[in-house]
Each structure stands twice: as structure tokens, then as C-alpha cells.
Design a protein that fits this description.
The protein has about 350 residues and is an alpha+beta fold. It contains ten helices and nine strands.
Length: about 350
């Protein structure tokens, strides 16, 4: 609780300071004295916005909230845009000098990014030998190079979306040859529902785009792009549900429900398995079911973390999900835990 409060304090402090800097800069540009002292005022505004704000960001946000320092580059570029907007064009002398220096920064960032991407690919390839799980392996590879970062989790999730959504026919089932697996979708009706939903969205996109185009072309393009992204996301989720079944590997249960949920569970930590027909939702339980109510509820003797889309993590000691063959799943689970309570 104290950590959350401190984060909010630092964030509020930073936002307050930058708003003050921007307000003062706008005030200086608008006052009558600006024209007679344009050289000094334009230098002050340029330094305050393009250098002052990024330094404050590093001191208050990056260090205190443990956000990766590379984000300073993004803040710096945003500050360039703000300064460019505030200062009159005839007073861009110092700003133009800084802009010329950004070419070196851009080259450095590109080189840095290239090196890091190579490291991520290398780490991913090493992990792929150990387990066939694109989502988990990419998350782990990114963490090994950059550490934990919400922004990078979001970027990774977009990679998942376009991989499964646009190239689903090329993606192989993520299991080793001959490995036993358990599907979660065949009895839920999610395939048929997704097909109908996708068709309706495609039809509506064409119709809505046609009407919006005559009213506002920019709005029409934005709505169409967002709808197409939504369709790709839906296809990605259903493709991942099919391609990423639940498996047992190296004495661990790999719970995989599309790109929406993933967890690695030690069978020894499973206290009880219930075959259920009704499920009462609560904050203490994680529901990983698809369209219909889940038919399996696992109770653990200690909480486990379930990773969702955008790297969103939830922790609980009860997880519910669908299994097409409950009997076969429980029999397989018994091989990993001898004294298993079944209800």
C-alpha cells in the first residue's frame, strides 16, 4: 500500500512540475518582452523543455519507479515536439541545434535496439529447445534482456496478436513430437461463435466504413483500422487456443488458454481437483474458461501466478478452466501426484 502511495506521489510531483514548466514557457512566449529579449527567452524555454523535463523524468520517474532508462529517449522526443509547438518558428535557432544532435541519438538507439533484439532472439532460441511455448518463451527472453517492463510486455503481446492472428495457418501446434496434450475448446462452441462474430464484424466494417467515409474520411479510417485490429485479435486468440493446448512437461502442468492465460503449476502443489458443473466467481478464484462455464477447478496449497494478455499477472490458489476430456486429464495428473484428492 505504501509503495503504491509513493508511486502516486512521485508521479503527481513530476506531472505538476512539467505542467508548471510548460505553463511558464507559454507565458514567456506570449508576453511583450519576449520579442525584445527573444534570444535569451528562447534559449531558456528550449533548455527547460528539451533538457529539464527529461532530466526530471530520469530523477523522479525512471529512478524512483524503476522504469528502464531507455524511455528517456521517448520523453526527450516528446519534449522536442512540445518545444517546437510553443516557440515561434523564427526563434528555433537553439531548438534546431538540438534537433541536429538527435541524429546521433537516433543512431545510438537503433544500434542499441538491434543489439538487444539479437540478444532476445538468442535467448528465445535457447528457451525453445527446453519448451515449445512461443508466448512464455518470448516473455522470458524479453525479461532476461530488459528485465520486467510493462511497456515491453505490451509490445510482446502485439507480437503474439499478429503472429497468431495473421499467420495462424503457419503456426504449428506447440508440443513436442508425440507429446500428450489436452484441448480446451472442442466442447465450448468457441470456434463456431468466433467464426460468426468475425463474419459479422467484417460485414459491419464494410457498411460502417462506407457511411463514415462520406461524413469524415479520417474517422472512417480510424474506425476501420480499430475494427480490423479487433478481428485480428479475435482470430489470434482462437488460433492460440487451438495451437497451445494444455500439456505436462518436466513434471509441471502447463496451463495454456490461448493468449489470454498461461501458468506453470507444480502438481505437488495441487491439493484438490474438482469436476464442476457450476462455478461461483470470486476475487480469490481465476476463471480461465472460454464461452461456457468451466468444468475443472484446481485448488492449490499455495498461490500460483497466471499471466494474461499484456503481461497482466493475477495470483490465486484456485483456477477454473475447461478440459474436453476430464477423465483422461485427471488420470494423467495422478501420474504426477500419487495422493490426489478428486471430487
Amino acid at each position: 500500500m505504501k509503495t503504491v502511495i509513493l508511486k502516486n506521489v512521485w508521479l503527481t510531483t513530476f506531472l505538476g512540475i512539467i505542467l508548471f514548466i510548460i505553463f511558464v514557457s507559454l507565458f514567456l512566449v506570449k508576453i511583450y518582452e519576449f520579442k525584445s529579449h527573444a534570444e535569451i527567452f528562447s534559449l531558456a524555454v528550449t533548455i527547460d523543455i528539451t533538457l529539464g523535463i527529461p532530466i526530471l523524468y530520469y530523477s523522479i520517474i525512471s529512478r524512483k519507479l524503476k522504469i528502464h532508462p531507455i524511455t528517456i529517449v521517448v520523453v526527450f522526443l516528446i519534449c522536442l515536439g512540445i518545444a517546437n509547438y510553443i516557440l515561434p518558428k523564427e526563434n528555433h535557432n537553439y531548438l534546431d541545434l538540438i534537433k541536429k544532435g538527435t541524429a546521433l541519438i537516433e543512431l545510438t538507439v537503433i544500434t542499441y535496439g538491434f543489439i538487444k533484439i539479437r540478444k532476445i532472439i538468442k535467448s528465445y532460441n535457447q528457451l525453445s529447445v527446453q519448451r515449445i511455448d512461443f508466448v512464455r518463451n518470448l516473455y522470458s527472453a524479453i525479461e532476461s534482456v530488459f528485465g520486467k517492463s510493462k511497456a515491453l510486455y505490451i509490445a510482446a503481446s502485439e507480437v503474439f496478436t499478429f503472429r497468431y492472428g495473421l499467420f495462424f495457418w503457419k503456426v504449428k501446434k506447440e508440443i513436442f513430437n508425440g507429446q500428450k496434450y489436452f484441448t480446451t475448446y472442442k466442447k465450448t462452441g468457441v470456434i463456431g461463435f468466433t467464426g460468426v462474430l468475425t463474419f459479422i464484424m467484417l460485414f459491419e466494417t464494410i457498411v460502417v466504413h462506407f457511411f463514415l467515409w462520406h461524413w469524415n474520411k479520417n474517422v472512417a479510417l480510424v474506425v476501420t483500422i480499430l475494427t480490423i485490429y479487433g478481428i485480428v485479435f479475435i482470430i489470434a486468440d482462437i488460433a492460440a487456443i487451438i495451437k497451445r493446448p494444455i500439456v505436462f512437461y518436466q513434471n509441471k502442468l502447463y496451463l495454456r488458454i490461448g493468449i489470454r492465460a498461461s501458468a506453470i503449476i507444480d502438481p505437488e502443489k495441487i491439493e484438490k481437483v474438482e469436476i464442476i458443473k457450476r462455478f461461483n466467481k470470486s476475487k480469490e478464484k481465476i476463471d480461465c474458461s472460454l464461452l461456457r462455464s468451466p468444468n475443472i477447478l484446481i485448488t492449490l496449497n499455495e498461490p500460483v501466478t497466471v499471466i494474461g494478455y499484456y503481461g497482466y499477472k493475477r495470483t490465486a490458489d484456485q483456477i477454473a478452466f475447461n478440459i474436453d476430456n476430464t477423465t483422461e486429464f485427471i488420470n494423467e495428473l495422478r501420474q504426477y501426484k500419487e495422493h490426489l484428492m478428486i471430487q
